[in-house]
Amino acid sequence: MNTATIASGNTQAYVSSQKRTYTVFEIQDILGISRPTAYTLVKKNLFRSIRVGGQIRISKKSFDEWLDQGVGGAVNEPVAPARQKISISVPEMNRILGLSKVEGYWLVKKKYFKTITAAGQLRVILDSFENWYAGQFHYRKVNGEAPGSKWTESTMSVSDTAQLLGIADATLYDLMKKKPFRTYKIDNKTRIDRADFDRWYHSQMFYRTVEDQHKDHERYQDTLTMPEIARMLGIHRNTVYKMVEAGKFMTIDTGRKKRVPKVSFENWYQSQSHYKKIGGDESGINR
Known about the structure:
By secondary structure, the chain is an alpha+beta fold. Helix content is about 45%, strand content about 15%. The protein is built from 15 helices and twelve strands. The strands form four sheets. A three-stranded antiparallel beta sheet has the order 1-3-2. It has a three-stranded antiparallel beta sheet with strand order 4-6-5. A three-stranded antiparallel beta sheet has the order 7-9-8. Strand 8 and strand 9 (about 190-195) form a beta hairpin.
């Protein structure tokens, strides 16, 4: 084993230059491996090491050179399984989020997640980073899951909600001024409470989801709108509304507009002689 022993009288001189070495624990953390595997690497003389007072110290220069060359299959041997990676370097985080060096260190300075210093290198605790990522919407991974997973089950974005209803974002913002459902500011973005939105949606009929609009079209295909009746009879739509108010035929309230069942309209039409259909169709409404 390429390990030297330093006499106790020389220990103080060694301590003053301690920054030039790594401990076994430090290379274990850098490589994300188990403690037995780290000791195995030392025993294989893959880099220079020394023993000081019963403690192994690894030459930082020698270890870094070995690491830069790539470990290849050096660690791939029947030793204890590697431990789960618990931290990433700031450059690694920057690559994950597609950030510049300045942007990455700005995030660290804001203390959005926990950090540690290992072997003189600032590292980001992975669990803390993922927890922060799941609670915000501003930063997005270059490759990986979308941000904000903490909130996507209980809230919706304005754009997603507008798309659900088949309306423009601006129209939804106008609706939100009336506060029909709860909204939150999360990471400086407006989010809509899903449960409260569902409560509001089922309490009204004016706004319909795109899916429900298709269902409504099928449900009301045997009905007529007031403009359709007006065109059929060649009269103004206001006249048709007056006929509805007079109870000439039955209507169905769909929320956005009233509709007349074709059967009801046809029964009324056959019972009078004042109005005639344009086109001379006296036999009834085409179905």
